[in-house]
Amino acid sequence: MLWRSLSILSLAAGTCFADGDMAFTVSMPQPANHTYHVTFRCDGLRGELQDFKMPQWSPGYYGVADYARNVANFRAEDAAGHALPWEKVTRNTWRVVASNAPVVVLNYDVFGAITFAANPYLGEDRGYISPSGMFVHLAGQLQHPVTVEIRLPPNWKQISTGLEAVRGSPNTFEAPDFDVLYDCPILIGNQEYFQFDVQGVPHFVAIENVGASVDRSKMIADLKTMVTAATRMMGEVPYKHYTFLMMGRGAGGIEHSNSSSNQFDGTTLETPEGYLRWLSFICHEYFHNFNVKRIRPLALGPFDYDQENLTNMLWVSEGLSVYYQDLVLVRAGLMTRDQYLAKMAAAIGNFENATGRHYQSATESSWNTWNSGSGVAGDRNTTISYYNNGAMLGAMLDLKIRDGSGNRKSLDDVMRALYRKYYLQKKRGFTDAEFRAECEGAANTSLGEIFEYASTSRQVEYGRYFALAGLKLDVTTEDTPGGYIGLNTRTEEIPPSELPTPAGRGGRGGRGGAPALRLVLTDAAAGSPAAMAGLQPGDRILAVDGTSATAPVLNDAITAMAVVGRIVLRVSRDGAEINIPVEVARNVKRTFLLSKADQPSAPQTAILNAWLSKSP
Ligand SMILES: [Zn+2]
């Protein structure tokens, strides 16, 4: 029922208090209708009003999902089944007029028709519970223990989750608090089940939709080898058990503290290349149990489930996980050195050939990822991927640390130190400065250049870093469509003190609450058309051929040049406005190749071997 009264809206919820049990029951009366039914019983409550909230996002997927919109048929009752009035007071908050009832029972439906790791899904043959999109919590009571009972449809046999089973209660699980509940997805259906142990710790593997021709025993053996290599590197198996949810349909994964949701096309495992790509993807989500779930920036836990949790350091949390996903496979003997170097060179090519690197840095990409509402970068022409770029920055950090420490330290030492110091001892995330300090301490030298690469769109000199391991980076070029001017920019908010008066210049933003933005030139590559035209770092680009300048406008103007032509940039410099014509040059695609240098020194060879060898 819906009960509307001003009194609910005008009263703030009193102190919510709960010292009794909190228990969910999830049933699936008609799975083909994509609708779960959820019952939540809260015992031991005190207070006139009780606020129940559903998270706005799922940790690991950096976009506001607005899960509350999937909830229907919400109702509240007391222990005797009397309806309690309620009102929706924010997008994701239901305020129940409990009138000091000690028990509130909620009933609601959750619709799930999207197959994705951050969304609940229910269909005729399987169900996947992304817990942030399924379970509400009592406001202010995230620390409260909770149980979940799953009522299986007929003929469904399996429940796979990182949650602890409650002894003596079939299909019932418990979490010590709601952070753990929200970190434990649940796969339901008739999936295959396997187990292996590493250092006595059980690892469960639930598999669905992978063709019968794929060798299960090889999959399990390779996962065990991968987990062994990763945990040996970190020096610890940090969980009591771990569950791999292997969902052989869809794409994308989400990491958790003792499980991972992995969606992939099950048919791709049938070729050696596809199998290795799968293993690398699984290793990425697995390695996250260290990097991001435990080793993490301050902003990434404890979480605020009501809004975006912004950080500059997804290039560390995601990018270094991309870096380690393959490095761990090399250490495990599952990927060869040549395969590794070929993949790294291809990643450099992808990054260098896309125009986004002229407009966005790794730290900006990290911060802005929420803007696209999808957890991934937006317009690929004017943004970069902190995954791809972060992995390259990880390699550069690792090589520089190895070189600076006389090959005695590596990025592994940084990861282990962050794990010990911040996760185990201080029990918190680290700041940007603390991460840098840990890296520079291991390198015994400044890593200013690499951190500048991370925070600007400056052209990276990869060759110098790979040379530290006796490798050379060769480049071949070929012409491709579009033009090139060699200019890098950043989009920044205009400080309020610099905003023109209301009647001032037009342009983007500044009205209706949106921040006013401006496009600032960060550098012009030496010898490039931009540099030849006299453009300078700090120039503010106001207009491109008479159109107000934004990164997409500038990019469109350059790429529209099928043949060489000219664009005119209106620029503000030192308080004056000037027009600067720029001759657009041909665009070239570059292909990179990493190979052994002709005569590497003994220290360079030692670094290469320490970096890219199978662990003994
Ligand atoms: Zn990731």
Features:
7-stranded antiparallel beta sheet; single chain; 28% helix; 28% strand; binds zinc ion; disordered N terminus; 8-stranded mixed beta sheet; alpha+beta; 616 residues; globular
Question: Helix- and strand-based class?
Answer: alpha+beta
Widest beta sheet: strand line-up: 7-6-10-3-2-14-17-16
How big a fraction of the residues is strand? 25-35%
What global shape is seen?
A: globular
Unreliable stretches (pLDDT < 50, length at least 5) are: 1-12, 503-512
**Count the strands?**
30
**pLDDT average, as an integer?**
91
End-to-end C-alpha gap: 65 Å
SS element count, helices: 15
| Small molecules (ligands, ions, cofactors) in the structure | zinc ion
Give an overview of the whole structure.
By secondary structure, the protein is α+β, with helices and mostly antiparallel strands. 28% of the residues lie in helices and 28% in strands. The strands form six sheets. An eight-stranded mixed β-sheet has the order 7-6-10-3-2-14-17-16. Strand 2 (22-27) and strand 3 (35-42) form a beta hairpin. The longest helix is centred in the middle third of the chain and has 19 residues, at 216-234. The radius of gyration is 27 Å and the shape is globular. The model is unreliable at 1-12 and 503-512 (pLDDT under 50). The structure holds zinc ion (ZN). Zinc ion (ZN) is lined by residues 255, 284, 288, 318, 321.
